[in-house]
């Protein structure tokens, strides 16, 4: 019996970090090869094609009236949708992490719905609801409200495809934080609103900011759902992704890649900000421990 116990005591289970050097090199090679092939090379190709004819052609392409209109519309949609997403994300995360109620699991599942549903299908659903032959379309049009093939429909489609991001960033963070600080605040006499603004919100601000960055990046790059409901009207309902598609289909490759380079630049900036936030959270976590 003693021998068995001593044998069990001396058994060591291999950790992935104790694998041979060859295995480590193999995994590193595979990962970096994948990143170079599917991320770095396409990014380089986009920027090289954008500047293929020099700075003058590049500036001419991004300063074209239709391009400027697409940029303005994209920014407008992001500015409108993000505050709404913040309200929904914070409310949903607060509700799910702080309260127990019937339908809690269903709500958590429904929040993930845009991840599972194709954006094109989402766009078609909005057409069936708000189109001229849809359920609500005739009534809306009779009262002077046009949703499909106009900006309101594009905003609705963008809200649908981006609303999980902020909630999904906040829910695990708020579950990890627990409710002890909120309970202490309520015990000391603060009401719910004061507790939220002075206790909860300062604790979740960086997770919220991270979710806003992801939702904003997704809103800028959304194509499928917005394409279905936009109508592709030049200078009116074309966002940057839709404008790129039109330029490419018209064989204006340099102009298409010039606009694409702007979106790629925004994506790179988003990744840098994301990395800064992650490093900051890591440092704060180390200090707290």
UniProtKB/TrEMBL annotation:
Pfam families: BPD_transp_1. The chain crosses the membrane at residues 25-48, 68-94, 106-127, 147-167, 207-233, 253-273. It comes from the Bacteria. One of its GO terms (molecular function) is ABC-type sulfate transporter activity. It is a multi-pass membrane protein. Residues 71-274 form the ABC transmembrane type-1 domain. Keywords: Membrane, Sulfate transport, Transmembrane, Transmembrane helix, Transport. CDD domains: TM_PBP2. It is found in: Membrane. InterPro entries: CysW_permease, MetI-like, MetI-like_sf, Sulph_transpt2. NCBIfam families: 3a0106s02, permease_CysW. The complex is composed of two ATP-binding proteins (CysA), two transmembrane proteins (CysT and CysW) and a solute-binding protein (CysP). Part of the ABC transporter complex CysAWTP (TC 3.A.1.6.1) involved in sulfate/thiosulfate import. Probably responsible for the translocation of the substrate across the membrane. This is Sulfate transport system permease protein CysW. The gene is cysW.
């Amino acid at each position: 019996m003693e021998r068995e116990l001593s044998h069990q005591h001396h058994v060591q289970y291999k950790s992935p970090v104790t694998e041979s050097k060859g295995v480590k090199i193999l995994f590193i090679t595979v990962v970096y090869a994948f990143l170079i092939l599917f991320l770095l090379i396409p990014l380089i190709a986009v920027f090289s094609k954008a500047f293929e004819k020099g700075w003058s052609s590049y500036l001419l392409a991004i300063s074209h009236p239709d391009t400027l209109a697409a940029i303005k519309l994209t920014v407008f949609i992001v500015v409108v949708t993000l505050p709404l997403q913040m309200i929904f994300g914070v409310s949903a995360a607060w509700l799910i992490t702080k309260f127990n109620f019937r339908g809690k699991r269903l709500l958590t599942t429904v929040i993930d719905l845009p991840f599972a549903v194709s954006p094109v299908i989402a766009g078609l659903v909005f057409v069936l609801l708000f189109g001229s032959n849809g359920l609500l379309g005739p009534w809306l049009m009779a009262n002077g409200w046009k949703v499909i093939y106009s900006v309101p429909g594009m905003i609705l489609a963008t809200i649908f495809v981006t609303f999980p991001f902020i909630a999904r960033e906040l829910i695990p963070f708020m579950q990890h934080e627990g409710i002890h600080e909120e309970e202490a605040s309520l015990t000391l006499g603060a009401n719910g609103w004061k507790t939220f603004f002075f206790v909860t919100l300062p604790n979740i601000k960086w997770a919220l900011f991270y979710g806003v960055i992801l939702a904003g990046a997704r809103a800028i790059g959304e194509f499928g759902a917005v394409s279905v409901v936009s109508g592709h009207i030049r200078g009116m309902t074309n966002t940057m992704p839709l404008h790129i598609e039109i330029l490419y289909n018209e064989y204006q490759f340099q102009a298409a890649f010039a606009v694409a380079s702007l979106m790629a630049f925004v994506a790179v900036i988003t990744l840098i900000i994301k990395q800064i936030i992650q490093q900051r959270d890591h440092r704060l976590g180390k200090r707290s421990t």
